[in-house]
């Protein structure tokens, strides 16, 4: 990437701003680019462009809209390594994970392009003679998407690709910490031949750009991934406007380890789920609910596995854990370590900011393990968003389910067991939107719905065919070819 000063992408043009802020590599502290801090006027300009473009875009047959996404997917595939390295540079996650995230975007492009030849409605028998009845999906109009820094390209594709194939136009506010992926994806859309104005990118803060998107009357859908507090405020405002809103707001995810579990497999699943992306995933495992019969052995094996975690710049080969996104994130993790100790949890490993040598300019935190936590402790209830996991001992399967469900979030859960009866009871009783059996809490696939219950969201889903429900309205169509007025229900013969 050659550009050092980014610009907004509005109506197919790269548009500058009047104020910029620096973006830093969290692994090294080096400045990467300058990103605009746009004002509300830029949002208004982007929405106007999207509104104009959407009227024409909606008239393009869906299979032709899909062809653009096929080209986007092919271009992403060609540029995969380039995109992955840029992602690691701005986000900090290790290169292996960055490649996986870019692949998720590629998969989403091809999957949603396939929906361009489906977008199925339904035909149904009419209750009157010489009458045809059907339902079909219709685009809503202009869509606003607000995405976080921890998955800066994958989440954007979950939201924008179904919106676009369904015939909508998009105004996207990426996180200011990770603007490069938005810049690169906008260039790919441009190269793929997406008409001007169908995709617009406006950089800036949530308080200015995000707020302007939420309040703009011409935006009829907001799709947001971020904190619970911000999501609740967005939902309240969208409710006032009768504007559709889709929220994904994090999790407090648990792995259950039963007394018959394959402990080595469970340890592997916990290490990946808890410490991958330095725990900065909404699906990260931050609780391990362990049966007392295997607790001691599980802890021993987990501690041993944690010794093999290498920490550093994600662009370096062999690194398994990268940095925390910024200083504020690092300080938040530090606060929760003190909270855990004050609550009486036992600190078995980690618990410190890493300093010295290669860590001096980045934001690094040791993978951390608490044990003997209780389900009521704050470290077992609140989202930490760092490489911190707490072991909670339980006596039974029923208690494990109760502890898993006893949080305000409901995104992802996992159980390790060899008992098929427990597998099916867990599938039924775990109150999360995603359930894994004999795997960690992360690794969602794009053709299934992504999202959760309770404080995690508001019933909508990213990814999968279910994502289309966010960006379309259902329209019922009746064609009466009887040549006379027929009144439903009234003229039905008894």
Strand content: 15-25%
- Judged by helices, strands and strand pairing, the structural class is alpha/beta
Give the CATH architecture of the largest domain. 3-Layer(aba) Sandwich
How many separate domains? 2
Low-confidence stretches: none
Shape: globular
Q: End-to-end distance, in Å? A: 72 Å
Give me the CATH superfamily of the largest domain. Aldehyde Dehydrogenase, Chain A, domain 1
Helix-residue proportion? 25-40%
Q: What is the name of the CATH topology of the largest domain?
A: Aldehyde Dehydrogenase, Chain A, domain 1
Identify the CATH class of the largest domain: Alpha Beta
Strand order of the largest sheet: 14-15-16-13-12-18-19
User: Radius of gyration in whole Å, from Cα?
Assistant: 24 Å
Strand tally is 21
- Biggest sheet, open or closed, and with what strands and sense? 7 strands, mixed
**How many H/I helical runs?**
14
Summarize model confidence as the mean pLDDT.
96
Structural description of this entry:
- The chain has 494 residues and is α/β, with parallel strands linked by helices.
- The chain has two domains: 8-249 and 457-477, Aldehyde Dehydrogenase, Chain A, domain 1; 253-437, 3-Layer(aba) Sandwich (Aldehyde Dehydrogenase, Chain A, domain 2).
- It is 37% helix and 21% strand.
- The chain has 14 helices and 21 strands.
- Helix 2 (62-78) runs antiparallel to helix 4 and helix 9 packs across helix 10 (295-306).
Q: What keyword list fits this structure?
A:
494 residues; alpha/beta; Aldehyde Dehydrogenase, Chain A, domain 1; Aldehyde Dehydrogenase, Chain A, domain 2; 7-stranded mixed β-sheet; 5-stranded parallel β-sheet
